[in-house]
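Fold this: Four-carbon acid sugar kinase family protein
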Amino acid sequence: MPQPVRDPLDRSGCSLQRGGTLPATPSNWLILADDLTGAADCAVAFARRGRRAVVAWGGTVEPGAGILAIDADSRRLPAAQASARHAQILRDAYRPATALFKKIDSTLRGQPAAELAGTLEMLRESGAPRLALVAPAFPANRRTLRNGRVHVEGQSLESTPLWARDHSYNSAFLPEILAMAGLRVRALGLDAVRGGEASLRNTIRAALAEGLDALVCDSDTSADLQHVARAALPLAADLVWVGSAGLADALAAILPASAGPALPERRFARSGGLLFLVGSVAEASRAAAAELAAQPGVGSFVVPPAVLRQGGGEDWHVLADGIAATLLRGEDALVAIETGDHPDLAHGAELARGLAALLQKAGSAAGGLFATGGETACALLAALGIRGIEMQREIEPGVPLGLTLGRRSMPVVTKAGAFGHPDTMTKARQQLRALLDEPAGGKKDDDR
């Protein structure tokens, strides 16, 4: 574990010491996420309510963003490396009087326990003891926590294809997972969560006084998450909020409202069609891709992993040129990595980098981007010289739309692989094309 900064200010002017009093309703939030899609679907909850929310990666800290979500790109790292990376980002980006939100996957992929343990250790070494309030449920996307266990669409997580394909732990019993990372944990059932704001706040105060590391909160509905948010917000100076977009949405909803951000009053340059990337093997993403592929004006391309590993050759160039030509004709291109019946997720990062290299010409021609799978989206955006995304609104829960920052500005939609419905990509295509085609001052669709 890297040692904390001893000088009050590090090279980026950030402080790990408490140095400022966090207001009861904080306006500045730092969101640490293990992938791009998670950072975006948490940040957009605040953007929808009028706060400037920016997603960044690769060490970028966007000035002037009251809500800064950082993609640590740690989903595929071993536990110790994921913990160390979060600690380093915290050192570089955390500022006084900032509320801290640790985004974890609602199905516990990656290394959420190690990342949280590293985050808490760094904070405490800097003189800022914190209690983690852990509520990973995302009821709008049918992920809940009951008796400390994650459920998806009413089934225990361990019985789902998601778990069979990709899991880090022996079970989905969250208190045990956190305890194995060395954290002192207590679970709160639905009776405690729904027992009244004052009672729940007193329970949190008692956990702080006892020196616990984490409280795990059952949540079966969005209202449960709102109970947690309202009870705990006055104690924000002593808390790290830990959850998915469900908890972020509950917090954003109870903060004072601001004037909503508007998409820029201009027409985007129509340099080409829309580029749709499918870097996920999840059933939801593959079903949505199949529906999109059936639409007129969409060219489909399946990229074999062997071609991406080669990084060149005739097949590589034929695909790269064909995708770019489709976009330059004004048509939309759907690009997916071939997975087969038994996909190997161990090489996901390598394939994402290979796909980003293959698509650089296409990305430069595209008028807008839709990407499912955080590694794929981040690799391509970074290759295009884009340093971040300013969030705007949602296509549907868990599917945010934003505007890129950096070398060029274009609309981009990101989606976690397992989120969405069969028509999600088709809906995103309609909204992206409407945004690209509408004149300045044109109609802006209500996404909710």
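The domain at 29-254 is CATH 3.40.50.10840 (Rossmann fold). DSSP finds 16 helices and 18 strands in the chain.
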